[in-house]
Amino acid sequence: MNHSSLWFTLISCIFFMGLVAWIAYRQTKNQVNDSAGYFLAGRGLSGGFIAGSLLLTNLSAEQLVGLNGQAYRANLSNMAWEVTAPIAIVIMALYLLPKYLGGSVTTLPEFLSRRFDKTVRLYIVILFMFGYVFVTIPSMLYSGALAVLRLFNVPDLLGISFVQSVWLVVWVVGLIGAAYAIFGGLKAVAISDTLNGIGLLIIGILVPVLGFFALGDGNMLSGMKEITVNNAEKLNAIGGADDSVPFGSIFTGLIVANLFYWASNQYVIQRTLGAKSLKEGQKGVLFSGFYKLLVPLFMMIPGIIAFHLYGENLRNVDLAYPTLISNVLPTYLSGFFLAVLLGAVLSSYNSLLNSAATMFAFDIYKPRANKEVSDEKLIKISKIFGTIIAFITFFISPLLMYAPNGLWDLIRQFTGFFNIPIVTILLAAVLSKYVPAIAPKVVIIFHVIAYYLMIWGTDHLFGFPLDINYVHVYGILFAIEVSIMLFFRFWKPRKEPYVFKKDPKVSLVPWKYALPITIILLSLMCAVYIVFSPIGLAYPDAVVSNSFWYAIGGLAVITTALYFLSLKSWMKKYDNYLIKEEERKEDFSVSR
């Protein structure tokens, strides 16, 4: 990149990022002076802002770099992490969100504290903090740094080494992201996320299109045909035993992992807790599910295109997407892409910082240090804590460059330390009224030890690996930990059944199209798997097989029937279910 192109890219990037920051500032001016305004956006987020924020919080540079790297290395089996998310999204929207909004909670640890006790609350916060500081936040920074470094060829530009370039870019990006989160609060994050999300969709669609043109020597259709005819197995999403996500794992640990992410991960659910009503919250959550179905198109297909263009010549699988970008994106779009890329990095990064600061303020400082703390001081404390967390992650992030099998698998393996016990405890909290507080404490301690032993410990300590896919380990430990919960439920149950107290700050009237949209969402999820399967685009003898059309036609008939059934009768039953739930809570409160 010559100096004139470099300056054009930098100036246009600064312009786009400045525009987003200015709009976010205008929309949040004088609205973050109290805790509800700073931490929950004043409980005033609409479905569009929630969906946009969820999109960009989730679909970040980690996915752009990591998923495309996995597609380049193997096939599309890793899309399971994204495309099966609608199952968890539906559970969140229809079942858990009414409970969260009904209790007017600010954090998940607060929700679990009401159900169990304050020690469980502390354990959960510790799990979240370790996960955020040592895994999730560093991965966001590092993946973004890789893409920026490749786009600008920073080592040659500044005359420094690759390692020094990673450290430099991590710190620059991290400092900008920290400013967003620490000084703007959740509403600034949500608004900037939505605007950057639009840009991400534009770039996400544009990159594979330009890649197809490059692959087809100027003919897009030829490029598309190339990936379906040559090495068609790369388009297969039905993972085998040797893939990092075997197809069977979708029905074991993967569903549980997605349920953690979409239903209990603080930095995700915090957007929904800021909804202006249950209706808007359900809209935002369900709409985000449709975005997830686009993941194969703009977060994995570019990796396939990179494989066809460059073969296996890249020194690191995580360089597939950044290399493709640097080769196919026109110079006049480089600034816009950089702004969107940084927006994606900053979104996930500042969302995590905001959520970590929120949990520290509400789950550690306020209940344990100063119960009568003013909103002004609580916001100040959270900003100080967010700053400390930010600087710690600046030192951890660059170390991810030494991951041997790519960023994606490493992140998912380490996430297993905290995702399974949290979702297990959440399910026990909402599905059983008698599980005692001792049960989640035992589960947390057991899980950390057992997970280490099953993934690395037997090899480190005794010299033999268990050779079980880590996603299956998720499922195995989930089953064991549910059994532990049930054991305590029958051996030492609570003396009285627990009922969550109703204290809604927003309307709990559900969205009237929640169930019909759910049917469409789950149907499209199945359709994506049919498309990227051995009877679909991964069919070796043609573009698709004859069975493909029968499968799609049958799915369309079933979807149509269920859609009209949900409109005519299921939605009424769902409304009545929510009404009865609230009546039971009120009756219990009166009887006590």
TrEMBL record:
Which branch of life, at top level? Bacteria
Q: What is its main location?
A: membrane
Where does it localize? Membrane
Q: Which PROSITE patterns match?
A: NA_SOLUT_SYMP_3
The record, for InterPro entries, names:
Na/Glc_symporter_sf, Na/solute_symporter
Q: Which UniProt keywords apply?
A: Membrane, Transmembrane, Transmembrane helix
UniProt-recorded name of the protein: Solute:Na+ symporter, SSS family
